[in-house]
Amino acid sequence: MNNHEIAEKIFMAGVRSVLPEKLITGIMKLEGNLLIVGENKIPLDNIKNIYVIGAGKASAAMGHYVETILGSRITGGHIVVKHGYSCKLKRIEVSEAGHPVPDAGGLRAAEDIVAISSRATENDLVICLISGGASALLADLPPGILPEELYIMNNLLIRCGASIHEINCIRKHLSRIKGGQLVRIIRPAALVTIILSDVIGNPLDVIGSGPTVPDSSTFGDALKVIEKYNLSSDITSGLLNYLKDGMNGLHPETPKPGDPLFEGALNILAGTNLTALKASKDKAISLGYKTFIIDAELNDDIESVCESVFNMAVSFKNNKDIQKPACLLYGGEATVKVTGNGYGGRNQHLALSTALRLRNIPGITLLSAGTDGTDGPTDAAGAVVDSDTVGKAVLLNEDPVNYLAEFNSYVFFKRFGGHIITGPTYTNVMDLVVVLIE
Q: What is the DSSP letter of 329?
């Protein structure tokens, strides 16, 4: 195997460790009429209906294994996934919708999920499955707002460099579902939410915009994000006025920590980026690499992350006291402020930026890829590079710097090689970066 293949094997070991089959069957089991989820035991003797709802890239696959465990005990449900991430379920309807920008499919799915949640009574159990992408996929609108206004807002947020905390703060306050509001609809039914984290630090109120978790953010906080990124003149007056009216008490706030609404509701974290990093580390060690998890919480802007990863790799390479070959592992999600008109994603952008730095430094290979199998709006998970990557373009009189400046990394790797193509992985715990040092 060459270094590109080895890096991909290490990456895929991490992905496999957070697949829904392993996660769901690892935390949920049925013993007679007792449903065990994590350390919680839920008697089903008096439960009349079990509804399964959910949203996110991994949620349909999660639903499959919930069906495997509960079978005919499930009355029905609805799960919404990103286009291409669905699988056929026996008792739960699955629909596809747009991500990262919501679309009409997400709006229809949200309506159906609300309708199912509204049917639940005190004799019922609702199981909610949340994974990365849920916030965009579970799309709904405030009264008087048009879908097009929501699409514009989300596109602006994705491109402006806002963090997922900031993006989801706004999404919560332009929703009737997010920020714990779905619990208002589900109650008085019993509720269990199983969560696959795609957010650094695993804050349950941010993952998928926390539809079943108390929310500490406010309308005022959402307006501060708008101001921070100078979006006031770009979003519609309808959205801006809705947020302002909310700050002035004209719309109900999201339910806050301590609200009795959440008493007895269970929120269980099934898998995280660190789970994947540990599996990747085990794989690298088995392949003979001295392996280090350097950072499990990458969240700075992408050029800062690139510079840090590059400097660490060079430092390790030049340190004769460190056993070689070595493998450095990182997890998280860098933030990107898109200023060009190209086509790509943060992982391919990070890889191309690193490739420019590695041009005259042999012996270092870097792979950056999303565990969900989709980097940005592309069909690639990410890319792998080394000291030869840039030279391939230069030989054809192409300037890689132009591709980087235009945020056109996908086209670069499509032309000159290096893409990591996995297809949908049916999981999502942010990104992994694998650095191999000879």
A: E
Beta partners for residue 433, in sequence order: 330, 368
Of 202, 237, 241, the closest CA to residue 219 belongs to 241
How much helix, strand and coil, in percent to the nearest 5, is found in the chain?
A: 40, 20, 40
Q: How far is CA 154 from CA 163, 170, 264, in A?
A: 13, 9, 33
Tell me how far apart the alpha carbons of residues 130 and 360 are, in angstroms, rounded to a whole number: 44
Yes or no: say if 214 and 258 are a contact pair by the CB < 8 Å rule: yes
DSSP string, 339-392: -S-----HHHHHHHHHHHHHTT-TTEEEEEEETTS--TTSS--EEEE-TTHHHH
Q: Residue 10 and residue 368: Cα distance in Å, rounded?
A: 11
The fourth-level CATH superfamily of domain 22-140+175-217+254-271 is Glycerate kinase, MOFRL-like N-terminal domain (3.40.50.10180)
Domain ranges within the chain, ordered by starting residue: 22-140+175-217+254-271, 274-437
For 270-308, what is each residue's pLDDT tens digit?
999 999 999 999 999 999 999 999 999 999 999 999 999
CA distance linking residue 240 with residue 157, whole number of Å: 14
Size of the chain, expressed as the number of residues it contains: 438
30 Rama sector, left if φ>0, alpha if ψ -120 to 50, beta otherwise: beta
Per-position b or e across 264-291, b if 16+ CB within 10 A of its CB: ebbbebbbbbbbbbbbbbebbeebebeb
Pairing verdict, β 266-271 and 190-196:
parallel
Nearest to 418 by CA among 361, 344, 360, 363: 344
Is-above-0.70 flag for pTM? Answer: yes
For residues 187 and 166, what is the distance between their CA atoms, to the nearest angstrom? Answer: 28
Q: Are strands 49-55 and 40-43 parallel, antiparallel or unpaired?
A: unpaired
Contact in structure between 437 and 313 (CB atoms under 8 Å): yes
Q: How does pLDDT run across 339-358, given as a tens digit for each residue?
A: 888 999 999 999 999 999 99
Q: C-alpha distances in angstroms, 339 versus 28, 99, 156?
A: 45, 20, 12
HEC assignment per residue over 69-93: HHHHHEEEEEEEEECCCCCCCCCCE
Type of residue at 406: E
Distance set, CA 237 to CA 150, 153, 161, 377 (Å): 12, 11, 22, 28
Backbone torsion region of residue 84, taken as left when φ is above 0, otherwise alpha when ψ lies between -120 and 50, otherwise beta = left
- Indicate the class that CATH gives domain 274-437: alpha beta
